Amino acid sequence: MEQMQELGQVVDVRGGTAYVKFTRTSACGRCQACGMLASQNEIVIEVPNELGASVGDMVAVSIRSKKALGASALAYAFPLVMLIIGVALGWLLGSAWGVFAEPQMPAALFGLGFAALSFVLLKIAAPLYNKKVSNVYKMVDKDKF
């Protein structure tokens, strides 16, 4: 399993969760596995606080890049696929079945409707998917830096 390790600072601790801030480094490569957008230079992520870190501690966090990238791919690909399906269905209704006079309007409306539906479905499925990718981040070391 491919893993990366990044160094960050604990900025908050709530219960068994530490909130760790990472700053983009030159070695980062902009892979977005941690969830940081290309335009961002910092990100705060939630990590199980298995090592008892406190606010201000420097910690090493292991990122399972394959799982993180898979989650990102799903979040971007599913709405795109739903948009294409909606456009195709709208176009079929508009042209092949003669329901509408012009196929462009139903294609656009169905495309937008299906894209919006995809976000609702992703929101509903989030708790199930979060269990699958819940161990993307793991605190592996603290205060030895």
Briefly summarize what is shown.
The chain is an alpha+beta fold and 145 residues long.
How is the topology of this model organized?
Elements: E1 3-14, E2 17-23, E3 42-48, E4 58-64, H1 65-96, H2 104-132, E5 137-142
Helix pairs in contact: 1-2
Description of the structure:
The chain is an alpha+beta fold and 145 residues long. It contains two helices and five strands, in the order E-E-E-E-H-H-E. Helix 1 packs antiparallel against helix 2. It is rod-shaped and about 70 Å long. 21% of the residues are buried. The model has no long low-confidence stretch (mean pLDDT 81).
User: Helix- and strand-based class?
Assistant: alpha+beta
Note the quaternary state here. Answer: single chain
SSE pattern: EEEEHHE
The CATH architecture of the largest domain is: Beta Barrel
Mean pLDDT: 81
Strand content: 25-35%
Any idea how many domains? 2
Shape: rod-shaped
Number of distinct beta strands = 5
CATH topology name of the largest domain: OB fold (Dihydrolipoamide Acetyltransferase, E2P)
- Report strand order across the widest sheet: 3-2-1-4-5
Distance between the amino and carboxyl termini:
25 Å
Radius of gyration, in Å, reads 21 Å
**Main beta sheet strand tally, sense and closure:** 5 strands, antiparallel
CATH-defined superfamily of the largest domain = Nucleic acid-binding proteins
